[in-house]
Amino acid sequence: QTKTSIALLYDEVSENAYDIRLKLTKEVLTIQKQDVVCVSGSDHSANHRTVTLRRQPVGGLGLSIKGGAEHKVPVVISKIFKDQAADQTGMLFIGDAIIQVNGISVESATHEEVVHLLRNAGDEVTITVQYLREAPSFLKLPLGSPGPSSDHSSGASSPLFDSGLHLNGNSTNTAPSSPSSPIANEPKYEKRWLDTLSVPLSMARISRYKAGTDKLRSNAFEVLALDGVSTGILQFYTAQESADWLRAISTNISDLTLQNMKMANKCCSPSDQVIHMGWVNERLEGTDSSQLYKFKFLALKGSSFYIFSTPPVSTLDWVRAEKIYNLCEVLFKIHKLWLADDCWLQANLYLGIHQDFDLEDQRPYCFSVMVGHGKSHYFNVELGSELAVWEKSFQRAIFLEVQRTGSKTYMCSWQGDTLCFTVDFALGFTCFDSKTKNVLWRFKFSQLKGSSDDGKTRVKLLFQNLDTKQIETKELEFQDLTAVLHCIHSFIAAKVASVDPVFIDSQSIARKYMYSN
């Protein structure tokens, strides 16, 4: 199914926007621009057309013009009146830039100069035109052809209003002249939408932000292909249209990513499957404390969480990740949501989510992945639905890894003794002497009633003795305490999920709020 629509292509340098047509298929987003093409007859030069108009006593030249050098745009035909001189040639179109009038170049002429020249050019006017493919939207040229037969232009000419040349002008000949009709063997022209750029959507990414900033574009975004080719900034007339296109393109990218995952998984063992992957923006804390964002490609595969600067295309690419973390030792957290009415919901205030980042970040749909040694990665996605998918995928990937691994053992120490601490999916927590292997203590997950740590290396675990109902405190020191705490969290969450899957779903913050959006 193909989706098409008229939109604007915004040029940040000139700050002009141009009419384009978007065409979306399952695999490609195509940008089309209007142009005039020769459809039959000998085509001398498709770019330049020279046309002779015979001024008519009623209707004059039968066209209106807009633009001029004072607006840094050429003078263009803005209206063509049905069955009048310009229309009868079959060779002139709305959007044609006038290059010459009776052999005189008008490419750098003002609006007033061209109006004067055309009005005083006599009964036979020869004009050379070239279709202006990138007519700035401020000219408000209609995309259809020919133009409407009513004209509201006044006698005084203005470059941004139509100056009518369908008035009689200074015609000396009052007898009706023969109409400017096309001759049989003359080339025939048509205005058509032509493909100018095709962006493959496989592994493509979307950005609604001005490069690296928190400034959200209004009703606009750009699509970047895997090889970095950009559509440029696509601008839409309404917020609804922008949201529809964003969703449609995003859905097609997701579907293609799913296909890529299935292909990759055919070459991987059952324990090393890709659960989810896709583009995100990572916030980089700049040295000058300016927040910069960079595109990163994340993947959840087998036992690991990968961060790439470019997507892995071949099997070899997986070892080239910027960072690889064990899934049992990471903690996924949602930081910020944007509700349907566009008001912020600071997740930490309303939902008791720990937020250790400042609140100035203007991007919605943010999550962080906390890793070992107290470090964190802070990410943002474009759509609420993507945030919900990442939340669910992290849960699933972590639970699968916990069940596959079964247990994890960490070296630790207490009062000079080297000990081992094991988190086991079936047995719970066990602490034993690393030399003698003697078990010092063992508790089930359900016996863990609380914990506290110093934020560095030391943790206190509070267990309830099943017989005495008393709380027993166990203190341990770890080299990477964060990783161990994340591992305990992962195992307990996986245990709860195995007993009560509905509970985990009910805890989904993103899905609770996103699907209402």
Distance N to C terminus: 25 Å
Task: State the CATH architecture of the domain at 1-34 and 193-267.
Answer: Roll
Q: Specify the helix fraction band.
A: 10-25%
Strand order of the largest sheet: 18-17-16-15-22-21-19-20
Average predicted local confidence, pLDDT: 84
Shape: rod-shaped
Q: Write out the CATH superfamily name of the domain at 1-34 and 193-267.
A: Pleckstrin-homology domain (PH domain)/Phosphotyrosine-binding domain (PTB)
Largest beta-sheet characterization? 8 strands, antiparallel
> Which fold name fills CATH's third level, the topology of the domain at 1-34 and 193-267?
PH-domain like
**Rg:** 34 Å
Report the sheet-strand fraction: 35-45%
Briefly, what CATH class of the domain at 1-34 and 193-267?
Answer: Mainly Beta
Q: Report the structural category.
A: alpha+beta
Unreliable stretches: 145-156, 168-182, 338-360, 513-517
Supply the key terms:
517 residues; alpha+beta; PH-domain like; Pdz3 Domain; 8-stranded antiparallel sheet; 7-stranded antiparallel sheet; 8 helices; disordered C terminus; PDZ; SNTG2 protein; cytoplasm
Structure description:
Belongs to the syntrophin family. InterPro entries: PDZ (IPR001478), PDZ_sf (IPR036034), PH-like_dom_sf (IPR011993), Syntrophin (IPR015482), Syntrophin_4th (IPR055108). One of its GO terms (molecular function) is actin binding. It holds the Pfam family PDZ. The chain is α+β, with helices and mostly antiparallel strands. Among the domains are: 109 residues, Pleckstrin-homology domain (PH domain)/Phosphotyrosine-binding domain (PTB) (PH-domain like), CATH 2.30.29; 86 residues, Pdz3 Domain (Roll); 101 residues, Pleckstrin-homology domain (PH domain)/Phosphotyrosine-binding domain (PTB) (PH-domain like), CATH 2.30.29.30. The protein is built from 8 helices and 29 strands. Helix 5 crosses helix 6. The two termini are 25 Å apart.
